[in-house]
Design goal:
124 residues, mainly beta, five-stranded antiparallel β-sheet
């Protein structure tokens, strides 16, 4: 099992690079996304789509990169988890974030994307 590197893009419609997009292609064989360090990125919206095969996705954060906790869903404060196509915004702003298929499922292929906006955009 290998950790999945995220694809990273700053070219998503803003001239000042104040919005970024990351995406991880998780599967039953590769269940965890490599952590991404992003303390300066505030508003964080997650989306997951794919074939779930019974998998459960947990959106996680850490301040030390080794002890992980489940982020909270901004809509109600419940755990930031998905088991079908959908999206949510997370509340906490830890140093590192990652997606993790805590239940790998059978034949799951789930693409997880994270769109984040810098709290104080750069000025042009």
């Amino acid at each position: 099992m290998a950790s999945v590197n995220p694809q990273f893009s700053r070219d998503i419609g803003t001239r000042d690079a104040s919005v970024v997009l990351l995406s991880w292609a998780l599967s039953t064989a590769n269940v965890d996304g490599l952590p991404f360090e992003m303390p300066e990125w505030a508003d964080r919206t997650w989306q997951a789509v794919g074939s779930w095969g019974g998998a459960t996705l947990s959106l996680q954060g850490s301040n030390d990169g080794s002890n992980w906790f489940v982020l909270s869903n901004a809509a109600g404060g419940t755990a930031a988890t998905l088991s079908a196509n959908g999206g949510l915004a997370s509340i906490e702003l830890p140093r590192y974030v990652r997606p993790n298929l805590t239940t790998p499922g059978s034949g799951a292929t789930v693409t997880v994307s994270l769109c984040a906006r810098r709290a104080t955009p750069l000025r042009n």
